[in-house]
Amino acid sequence: MRLTFRRLADRRPVETTVERDDGVVFEMRGAGGGADLPHDLVHALVESRLQVPDGIWGCVADGVVWHSMRHVSGRQPPHAAERSAALKRERAARIQQAEALADVVARLARGAEVLPAETAGAGHPPDRLAAAAADLREAARAWAALRPGEVEVVEWVVPRGSRRRCR
User: Fold this and answer.
1) Which of 31, 58, 162, 164 measures 20 to 30 Å from 50, CA to CA?
2) Could you name the domain of life of the organism this protein comes from (predicted)?
3) pTM of the entire predicted model
């Protein structure tokens, strides 16, 4: 799946083009803007680095359509809305864990205080969390260097060894 994050002028939401592997394309507006690393890009980088198969972007790859997504092109599979709703219900706990994980790694990247219980609860060894935080710091520098209208492209792939459900 290809994710194209377009930086807009400061204080404007980020625009993201989502090109799923099945050929369906969505546009979405997300949190973040200006020089700050977009929230959805944080998720893409953290989930990719830590090989989270059923976080935010794994869900999208499997057919979840969030409210912020607008269908642009490509034929959606039959019963796409029902499948999306079922996946959201099935993976609700994992989605919440992905949100918490992205938050912990983002705070580590900024050098903010992270409690030992939060690090332990993230479900990944400290060295992998530190590596993901280093990736975010580098991504934040690259994002801040973009001018409005420029893009960052992320190729999100199914993490190795994951077993996809609800296909």
Assistant:
1) 31
2) Bacteria
3) 0.90
